[in-house]
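FAQ: What does the model actually see?

It sees only this:
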Amino acid sequence: MKYYLHDTNARNDEKVTMLFIEYGYEGVGLFYAILEVLASQEKPVSEMVLKSQLKIKKKLEKQLCFMYKIEILSLKNGDVFNENLLNFSEKYQIKKEKTRKKVSEWREKQADKKVVTDYVPISNHRKVNKSKVKESKELPQEENPDTMFISYKNSFIEKYNILSGSEYYFTAQDGVKINSLIKKITHAYQSAGVEIPTDAQLVNGFKHILERALNDKWLKDNFSLSNIDSQFNKLKLKNNGTPAEKANDLYTELVNNLHRKED
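And it is asked to produce this:
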């Protein structure tokens, strides 16, 4: 057994008190050391083995004999045991055997299952708001956001590679700038009367901004998502937004030119 019951009031036991009076803490300590050996074996232990394990020699042997005398320990046929501990060990063995039988019976009942620890969660069907389902059908089917982001990313990298003749190293900051540009392009569509631009419109709008950036000398020489994003308001209008070119602003081109391409 891994442990044995130890009464917290054991020091007041008559026999333990007698042992303490005669040999003090040394005697009591030896007694509990012997109990630990007996508990680990779960049966009486040979006196010779006990003495060897606990290194009981002349001085401690007197204390051991005193324990026999006051019957706090017993010696029979050369084996040492404690009555209370032996009784507890027997009860422990009986309880362990009963537990083993119960587990065995339970496993037999579960024999038809592949794994006795299988657990199938049971839950109610997911509730769906019918009104929301109806609304979602009316909206255009959107692509996966990750796929859309890759489209924006590849459009920029393609332009950059052609312009510079080298591969572009895309960073997390570039991703932030793409998201910023898409928000601004979405606003441009909304300003032109398109409340919810489609994914295709946003991709075309992004490509259109890149083309406008390439037509600007400074942006072409300093072609980056950060610069394009910072110069977005300039790119909205041709010729820096002079009144004569107002008809050619980004809002008009996004709706008229790019929308016709989709058709």
